[in-house]
Amino acid sequence: MDTTQNWFEDNRANWDDRAALHEASGYGIPALIADPSHLSAEVAQDRERLGDLSGLDVVHLQCHLGTDTVSLSRLGPRRVVGVDLSGESLRRARDIAERAGAPIEYVEANVYDARTAVEGDFDLVYTSLGVLCWLPDVAAWARVVASLLRPGGRFLIRDDHPMFMTVGDDVSDGLRIEQPYFQRAEPMTWDQVGSYVETPADAPEFTHGVSHEWNHSIGEILTALLRAGLVLDSFEETPYSAWTPWPDLMVADGDRFRLREDPDRLAMQFVLTAHRPA
Ligand SMILES: C[S@@+](CC[C@H](N)C(=O)[O-])C[C@H]1O[C@@H](n2cnc3c(N)ncnc32)[C@H](O)[C@@H]1O
Predict the structure, then answer these.
(1) In total, how many domains does the chain have?
(2) Does residue 230's CB lie within 6 angstroms of at least one atom of ligand 1?
(3) Choice between 178 and 202, residue whose per-residue pLDDT is larger
(4) Domain limits at 234?
């Protein structure tokens, strides 16, 4: 295997372990199964941006356990496909979809291979929260997104903001920029067991702690999508996060989190919509 394949292989093993841990932690799954009209917080938040999905073909890239995929399927599309690198995530996603009564096709593939792995073209490509950081090359990713869309098709990404991703874990001295803002060829490599959920007492064993991440600047993301032929429709930055990397500095605000003091210092997420010209 070349180095890039080794990086993906480490990330796949890491996400297989996270899948078990995330399902054990709850991850919003019981609510989706109990209530056939329930939507994940992410999809509910972008309900207006997503618009009417009736009769449309939708592909969800990096779908993980499929909580957002199930939610998208509840907005009336004709076809919903979820793509992910982690077979263990998809094994669980299939079971969750069945229990939630959601007809979803799940395809195990690297996002870079999605065009060949998935049949057909799509009216909507959706991807959200914790996605670009696992991808080494944002330009190649944007070309895959464009290739999945039929003319007139739409794209929506909500993700952690690259500026948010530059801040280190140790904030005892305040927020400090420790990670690169711009895309680097070499990844940031971590070795830590566990994930961003609270580990339940009966959590399954977590053995694959090594993972590799990359950051991508806002300019790199926008340029990649424009060069891939997409037209930008909206771009918003927000001071809210879905998770709390620095619990001492953050407070809950509804089902999101923000800095306790002067939250306008740091963008934590961005949400972008674009389309392929008809
Ligand atoms: C944080 S989750 C994003 C989904 C959603 N926000 C959630 O929390 O359920 C990241 C997902 O990206 C997937 N992933 C990482 N690298 C990938 C790649 N190269 N191709 C496809 N999926 C990948 C992981 O397996 C994981 O399921």
Answers:
(1) 1
(2) no
(3) 178
(4) 3-275
Can you tell me the distance from the alpha carbon of 88 to that of 6, in angstroms, rounded to the nearest whole number? 18
Rounded to an integer, what distance in angstroms lies between the CA atom of residue 157 and that of residue 128?
5
Is 151:206 a contact under the CB 8 Å cutoff? Answer: no
Q: What is the DSSP letter of 240?
A: -
**CA 244 to CA 155: how far, in whole Å?**
27
Report whether residue 183 contacts ligand 1, using a CB cutoff of 6 Å.
no
Closest among 92, 88, 85 to 26, alpha carbons compared: 92
Mean pLDDT of 57-77: 98
Calpha distance 239→217 (Å, rounded): 17
Identity of the amino acid at 159: D
Question: Is the shortest distance between the CB of 130 and ligand 1 below 6 Å?
Answer: yes
pLDDT of residue 200 exceeding 90, the answer is: no
Q: What is the CATH number of the domain that holds 36?
A: 3.40.50.150
User: What is the Cα 40 distance to its own chain's centre?
Assistant: 13
Place of tokens 């961005």: 270
- What are the DSSP E strand ranges found in the chain? 57-61, 79-84, 105-108, 122-128, 149-160, 188-191, 210-213, 231-238, 250-253, 256-259, 269-275
Distance CA 162, CA 214 (A): 10
